[in-house]
Amino acid sequence: MKHRPLLIFFLLLTQFCFGQSKTDSLQSLLKKSDEKNQAYLYFLLAKEMLYKDTHQLIAYSKKADSLAEHYQIDSIQVNALNYLSYAAINAGRLDEAIAYNKKATDISESKNLNNEKALSNYYRGYILYATGQPDSSLKVLNQVYEKGMQFKDLSLQLKCLNTIAANYLTQGKYKDALEKFTRAYHLADSLVMKDKLINLSLNIGTTFLYNEELDKALEYFEKVISISDTANVTIAYASALNNIGACYSRMGKHKKALTYFDKALPAYIKLNNNYQIAQVYTNLGQSNYFIDNVELASKYLKNAINLNRKNQSQNQLIVNLILLAKLNIEDSNFREAKYNLDEALGLANEYNINYNKGDLYQTYSYYYSERKQFEQALEYKQKELNLKDSIFNESRQQQISELQTKFETKQKQIENESLRKDISLNRLQIEKQNQVRDLLIVITLIVIGLIFILLNRARLKKKSHQIIEAQKSELEILNKTKDKFFSIIAHDLRSPFNALIGLSNLLSSSYDHLSDEERKNFIHDLNTASESAFSLLDNLLTWARVQQDSLKIQKQKEDISLLIKESIEPLEATAKLKNISIENTVNLKSKVLIDMFMIKTLMVNLINNALKFTNEGGSIKISGEEKGGKTIISISDNGVGMSQEQMNQLFKLGKNKSTLGTNNETGTGLGLILCQEFIEKNDGQIWVESKEGEGSTFRFSLVTASPD
């Protein structure tokens, strides 16, 4: 149903007014809805779980996917598959995430769902980001962002900006990351998306954390916690706890950091988010390492590495390999330390992950120093210092501070009063120019509109005149035709009535002087003249009713075989008088959709015509067939036939010249005109085939009724 989502919206609104949570309201609606509506409701429930519970997100998304596939609701199925892809990557199941994303992309492409296709490509970019492939991720996300601009899809633009910024963060491009996060924040603010503002505040704080601006980072993380609903744990809330711990860890306050990590871990476990759980294990391992709790640090780091490998999260794997290498060095396990460092360096180079390369070079230097290989140790110490110089130079610090100021104030104030005046004057001039331009455009549009209206009126007037002239000409032709037709009718009526009057006068005045044989002949002639006059009058009255539209059509399913038999019966006596055989081979099982009176009148006229123009001892054949949803009836005789000129005049008012029958029967041709009127009112056609001296075949088609 087209309005299902609208109906569900109002039901939800009603539920919320009574104080239910959105999730509870959706659950209540599930019990009242049919399966087709449930597909949409499960999708909404999955959306509610997006940043709250990975297991619930998977469960609801699978139900939405299954029902949407069954009822062929393609857009819901694609969105459900994208949620499954997102959930799988956070649950550490990369192969499933890729498979779900591919299926979503394939469906959106095959069904030409452009918006859904763009969203599926976004999630492909997210998977590449989450697995530590920032270059590939950025390539995909920038293309999707362009689509979001093209479709004017602000929500999609927001998603792309956020994940593009996260990729820049991974690459150590803090200026670019902060610029994208800031743009995303303003966009979310304009859309009044509170949840997104919380997440973006978290991301901006994370950027300051990576840039070692810890006080600013703490300010944003504490803001996230203050505006979060602690009753409903979200990823943003758990990540804020985790990142506050990271700030204190970098300040050297490792015991205080551990209190926040310990709070973050159960929050992530509640959310079933393996990707973030691995991060907390990393932080717990690092802080325990700094307070010399080596055994616990090693345990946490190995847990983190196992999850990193399972999640294929390369950036976090690098961090943990570096930390584990430090523990190996302190434990004099140099072989294992070198193996971990080389793997970390290989991953950093392969995936262009630079933000922790300084730490990696520092650990290499520490390794070679402990091995007494001071030349190599000095080489890596120099690499570490060079990298720090390139990242933390004064210019970059100043650019980030300027961006922060722009973010907080949203618009830089113009300090130079003279510049303000110049800008104001320029604006006034531009506005004046724009007003003149707009006025000219309006005047031009008005003139074009008036010209169009005048031309259109002239065209309509000319067309109306042409229609009136055509109708006038047609009416004149019809009037002349009808005048001619009525003159023919008057002439043809005069003949039988003259015969009636003459014969009746003769019988009245000379009855006693006539023999019985002569009297019988006169009476027979009187009867023939009476029947001819009656037939003509009956056809004329019927035709008049048709023209006045007083003859109402009543279509029903009728047995055509039975109707033909009934039409033959009253004409059998006439056939016997002329020794004409009537052969009826119509035995059709299907019924036809007709007005019985009209078609019976048509049959009687056509059979009567065949009798009139068939010689004594001749034959008439009536046959039928079904073809292409039509029932076709044929009435053939071996009578006098017609010339091509005569056939051309058939069914034309006032042009059908009556032909004498084989026994000098007369007529006006009105019966055939009635036949054509009746067959057209029954959605059929009538036509004739004939040769002079060989006979004629009249055929007509009727609509075959569908079986009950």
UniProtKB/TrEMBL annotation:
Give the source's domain of life in one word: Bacteria
Mind telling me which SUPFAM superfamilies this protein's record contains? ATPase domain of HSP90 chaperone/DNA topoisomerase II/histidine kinase, Homodimeric domain of signal transducing histidine kinase, TPR-like
TPR repeat placement: 198-231, 238-271, 278-311
Alphabetical list of InterPro entries matching this protein: HATPase_C_sf, HATPase_dom, His_kinase_dom, HisK_dim/P_dom, HisK_dim/P_sf, Sensor_HK_Regulatory, Sig_transdc_His_kin-like_C, TPR-like_helical_dom_sf
Protein keywords? Coiled coil, Kinase, Membrane, Phosphoprotein, TPR repeat, Transferase, Transmembrane, Transmembrane helix, Two-component regulatory system
Which region is the signal sequence? Answer: none
Read off the Pfam families from this record.
Answer: HATPase_c (PF02518), HisKA (PF00512), TPR_12 (PF13424)
Q: Which residues form a coiled coil?
A: 393-420
In short, the EC number is: 2.7.13.3
Q: Which reaction is recorded as catalysed by this protein?
A: ATP + protein L-histidine = ADP + protein N-phospho-L-histidine
Q: Where is the Histidine kinase domain?
A: 488-706
TM ranges are 439-456
This entry's Gene Ontology molecular function terms read: phosphorelay sensor kinase activity
Identify this protein by name. histidine kinase
